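Here is one chain, start to finish.
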Amino acid sequence: MVEIVSPDDPERDTVVKVADYAEAGIAEYWLVDPVAEQITVLILEGLAYAVHGRFARGEQATSLSLPGFEVAVSAVFDAT
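Its structure:
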């Protein structure tokens, strides 16, 4: 699951939806924050998410669910 954090309502995307997706059992959840230019990868551990990593420009955001899958953070934000 990938969520683009809305600058108009970041709490909805980073708190409310996180709880909803955890309840639904979504194993991995990527939060793409265009304001901070950061990607946070969350991994479901039990009933809640743990942070796998916070990735910024110049870094590769990685997945635990898809071994070998990575995304260049700079490329994500340069594409907008």
